[in-house]
Design a protein that fits this description.
It is built from no helices and 15 strands. The radius of gyration is 21 Å and the shape is elongated. Mean pLDDT is 78; it is low at 144-154. It has 203 residues and is mainly beta. The strands form 4 sheets. A 4-stranded antiparallel sheet has the order 1-2-3-4, with no helix packed on it. Strands 5-6-7-8 form a 4-stranded antiparallel sheet, with no helix packed on it.
Length: 203
């Protein structure tokens, strides 16, 4: 049968056969089966690698299930705030996951809590797959062709979030005293011009 996704961790390729309940570990050099992990009760719709974990998208619950491929155990589960349809891909050093939501938008999710980091503009309306390679998100679209014979591959630029660094006075400030707040040490890996906006929640 077809695979629900592929992931590469620690020099090993992992995949789940569509509709299957086993995570297979395969030697990428010769295709030999190395091991398998039973994953009962999970309707796998996507597989991704994040750090040293395999992440499975459970299509029946919408949960992201994090599996230790070396200990063959489930580590944790999280439910993202958006409905994920397909296209799960690990974001490498970003520590995030990319996925296609139920509106055919690309979302970047935190690997810590599943929250949405950003929503990326979708280059097409019939997205079917994602891969994050060398800092570039690769997107596959079936172009609306029923037999899936026409495949377009696109690249989507992924904007890395800025790293905030700021300084504030190291002593209490009185109501009538001016305070200097400085965020000029904030950096952005993409080299974009940054602007700062302070919000103290007081109007």
């Amino acid at each position: 049968g077809s695979a629900s996704g592929l992931a590469f961790v620690g020099g090993t390729l992992y995949f789940v056969a569509s509709g299957g309940d086993e995570l297979f570990e395969v030697d990428p050099e010769n295709g030999a089966l190395v091991d398998s992990i039973q994953i009962p009760g999970i309707a796998v719709e996507g597989v991704a690698a994040l750090n040293d974990e395999i992440v499975l998208l459970d299509g029946s619950t919408g949960d992201l299930v994090f599996v230790d491929p070396f200990g063959d155990t489930e580590r944790r589960r999280m439910t993202p705030p958006v409905a994920i349809e397909s296209g799960l891909a690990g974001g490498g050093d970003r520590g995030t996951l990319f996925a296609i939501d139920d509106q055919s938008q690309i979302v970047e999710l935190s690997g810590n809590d599943g929250s949405v980091v950003q929503t990326l503009p979708s280059p097409a309306t019939a997205l079917v797959g994602l891969a994050f390679v060398g800092g570039t998100l690769l997107v596959t679209d079936n172009s609306g062709v029923v037999n899936n014979t026409a495949i377009d591959r696109m690249r989507v630029g992924v904007n890395a979030p800025p790293v905030p660094r700021f300084s504030i006075p190291d002593r209490p400030i009185s109501v009538s005293e001016a305070a200097l707040l400085d965020a000029s040490m904030t950096t952005d890996a993409d080299g974009e011009v940054l602007s700062y906006q302070w919000d103290f929640g007081d109007g």
